[in-house]
């Protein structure tokens, strides 16, 4: 038994030394690689981003209709039954979120437009409530010195168009997309610093 204790004690000492060495190296690394705003060019823009389905919530309010994500999340494919019905509740709390952006020192915010909110069912007249919301959000960002960066489509395809066309595999969808594109450009003209047609556009094109 005594002979077995010596190797065990040695192992404990070695483990303790390695833990201590690791802590010392972590502290040294943190000091060595501390990054501040001054390490970036003056014109470098710090920002954050969200997608409409992840952030807005208000899934069935003010005329919004389901997107493919609503259908997917409610069909039991997401662990724990989670969905975006409420999400971050940005639809109601966007002013609070912009304040948090200001406090965090952000200079830009990238967000996407919910197609099924702005144009319910994917085509037809623009939803005035949605137009009001996005205009208010953009103006709130600008008034607080934050650049709005708008994305047209972030995977939340209107379920109505999915059912009718089968999604992006139909060329007919481009007519509905053009309508969305036209209305968004009209809404943000002169306000947004950056406009992107699709999130991960290159990945989408490769998949198609």
TrEMBL record:
Q: Which domain of life is it from?
A: Eukaryota
Q: Which UniProt keywords apply?
A: Hydrolase, Membrane, Transmembrane, Transmembrane helix
Biological process terms from the Gene Ontology for this record are: carbohydrate metabolic process
MF-aspect GO terms: beta-glucosidase activity
Q: Which InterPro entries match?
A: GH, GH_1_N_CS, Glyco_hydro_1
Q: Which residues form the signal peptide?
A: none
Any stretches that span the bilayer, and where are they?
A: 7-25
Can you tell me which family this protein belongs to? Belongs to the glycosyl hydrolase 1 family.
PANTHER family listed in its UniProt record: BETA-GLUCOSIDASE 11 (PTHR10353:SF29), GLYCOSYL HYDROLASE (PTHR10353)
Its name, as the record gives it, is: Beta-glucosidase
Taxonomic source organism: Arachis hypogaea
